[in-house]
Amino acid sequence: MNRRSTVFQLRSSAVLAALMLAGTGCKSDKKPEGTAGDTAAKPAGAAPTIALLLPESKTMRYESFDRPYFERKVKELCAECRIIYSNADQDAAKQQNQAEAALTNGANVLVLDPVDSLSVGSVVARARQSKIPVISYDRLILNADVDYYISFDNEKIGQLQGQALVDKLKADGKDKGTIVVINGSPTDNNAKLYKNGAHSVIDGSGLVIGAEYDTPDWSPDKAQQQMEQAITKLGKDKIVGVYAANDGMAGGAIAAMKAAGFNPLPPVTGQDSELAAIQRVVAGEQYMTIYKAMKLEAEAAAEVAVALAKGGQPAADKVNGKVNNGQKDVPSILLTAGTVTKDNVKSTVVADGFWKAEQICEGAYKDACAAAQVQ
User: Fold this and answer.
1) Where are the beta strands (DSSP E) in 15-138?
2) Which of these, 167, 160, 165, 168, lies nearest to 180 by C-alpha position?
3) What whole-number distance in Å separates Cα of residue 196 and Cα of residue 112?
4) Mean pLDDT over all residues of the chain?
5) Cβ–Cβ under 8 Å, residues 215 and 185
6) Which stretch is the leader sequence (predicted)?
7) How far apart are CA 193 and CA 350, in angstroms?
8) Residue 289's pLDDT is what?
9) Segment 255-273, tens digit of pLDDT
10) Residue 27: predicted pLDDT
11) Which architecture, in CATH terms, is 155-291+339-369?
């Protein structure tokens, strides 16, 4: 795949337009009640209640994008719908407790992005016993009877990352060199898919993987430590590139290489298009990141959740795929991601309004933005 491809189907409203959900919108003018930490029991006859359970806050996307986009869309579709929100802070046991509390407090639907894709099976089982539907959001819940899965084609994302790195190193004449691979959390099924996708491109490319790590909690600090270990093991002159599965870990790897005196920095991959990562891309410190239109993902989840909470279903023919989670083929809505490099920052994340040029180009990044024609 051409790493410069900017075929961002993400902008298209077709995916969301296709989600014509059953059931009519709420008519009441009553304002929504749900907030983080809402534990009030749901009285008889109360409005539909949706629980949004997110896994962690180290990755900025969840609090900055997923939650506000989801809550805004729910309120737009159903003014009286109540939202119970919780963030597990990367603690699987805490998330189980939060899910149990949501069920106890009247949730009609669980929208669950698991800390541990396996351990939440007991939560899903309890929800199913109570006939409460469960939407597996962003990360696939494994070996459980979930109703819907809403995410991106995550193996494809790993392929995009791996291909971008291989293509860049080939263009630089370093396609037989040694790279470091820093994967995501072993408890996150998405990390496994990214890893599989990346290996499908890197393996057989001629590149040598000199060190590879799975990173607990997707922690940037742990990624920095792993990169330090790789530098000690391989020597800084031997490392021609770094596959990092997301932007936070890319930042950790880059910090380790800067401290070790790398000049110039080798190409480093990433994912999520975090502001700091986009700034690193513009400045030439990080080669690429993956842009996922989280607004579309969160809004799709909100539309399905509202339909289910009101006793309806999303139109069956509008779901665009199925993903096997070890127990069943889960009806799925899979969105498309794309690659961002210095050459297309303006035509991707800026054009879509994900980041404003003035946010990216402030302070020390002003000159780099001018050179990259971001503004």
Assistant:
1) 49-54, 82-87, 109-112, 134-137
2) 165
3) 23
4) 89
5) yes
6) 1-17
7) 28
8) 98
9) 999 999 999 999 999 999 9
10) 36
11) 3-Layer(aba) Sandwich (3.40)
For residue 95, the one-letter residue type is Q
Topology alike, domains 9-146+293-336 and 155-291+339-369? yes
One-letter amino acid identity for 52?
A: L
Sequence ranges of the domains in the chain:
9-146+293-336, 155-291+339-369
The helix (run of H) or strand (run of E) holding residue 114 is none
pTM of the model: 0.79
Q: Report the CATH fold assignment for 9-146+293-336.
A: Rossmann fold (3.40.50)
- 73 vs 153: CA distance, rounded Å: 23
**Residue 235 Cα distances to 211, 261, 332, 367, angstroms:** 11, 11, 44, 32
pLDDT along the chain (375 residues), means of 10: 40 40 38 38 70 91 94 97 96 96 96 94 94 97 97 96 98 97 95 97 97 96 98 97 98 98 97 97 98 93 96 83 95 95 96 94 95 92
Tokens of 341: 């490099």
Name the phi and psi angles at 137, rounded to 5: -105, 125
Alpha carbon 59 to its chain's center: 9
DSSP 291-347: E--HHHHHHHHHHHHHHHHTT--B-GGG--EEEE-SSSEEEEEEE--EEEEGGGTII
